[in-house]
Amino acid sequence: MSITKEKNEIILKQEAFLKDGIENKGIHITSTVPIAVYGFHSSRDTCDGYAAIPIRYISTKYIIASFTVWQHRSLSKSLIVIVSLGGNTKVQVQLKMKQGTVTFSGRKFKHGEIINVEMSAFQTLQLSHNYDLSGSLISSSKPIGVVSGNKCNSITHYRCNHFIEMILPVDQLDNEFIIPIIQTRQKVPSDCYLQEQFILMFT
Question: Can you tell which superkingdom this protein's organism belongs to (predicted)?
Fold first, then answer.
């Protein structure tokens, strides 16, 4: 398809939305000139989106960052989505969670246990849990893309959003950042997830 110089929207059908497990729902986007790509979902009560990371920057190791699931309800459940770039990609997900289990392929996995899967090109894997999955470790034999978020989570306990982000791989992480304080969220701390022992300094 051809697009114009301005903003272009491609609306996906309901069938493109993911469910838990492995599905053939990866979307491969290429262009003849540099572009920016955003995934966005909007409904009556919620809207949220994320910036897609170009393929040249995806890699094979990730640490999941997400948000505490409000009241551990299924509506707000924590989500991990993986999309495979190439075929015969072996993926390991080492789960981190406070309690409960994650169900995949008919089996229940506990904290610290590893889910092993082999994925074909452009397949997706979605995992969900009623507790936060932050800190879960993902590794793969070939580059993959990883998205984390929630089904529809809440901070104010009134409206809910997806809190969705495409995660940077470990080899794109760094040691110095500058972040703003959100005006109405000054008491919400920043979360940090690291591979190894560290010293964290705030100034």
Answer: Eukaryota
- β-strand pairing of 165-166 with 137-150: antiparallel
Residue 113 has pLDDT above 80, yes or no: yes
d(CA 112, CA 76): 22
Going by their DSSP bridges, the two strands 114-119 and 89-94 should be labelled as antiparallel
Contact 51, 166 (CB under 8 A): yes
Task: State how far the Cα of 143 lies from the Cα of 139, in Å rounded to an integer.
Answer: 9
Q: Letter for the amino acid at 161? A: N
CA 57 → CA 42, 138, 167, distances in Å? 27, 16, 11
Residue-wise DSSP of 71-108: GG-GGG-EEEEEEESSSSEEEEEE---SSS-EEETTEE
Chain position carrying tokens 């993959």: 144
pTM here?
0.81
CB 131 within 8 A of CB 98: yes
Q: Look at residue 60 in the predicted model and tell me its pLDDT.
A: 97
Q: Which residue has the higher pLDDT, 156 or 120?
A: 120
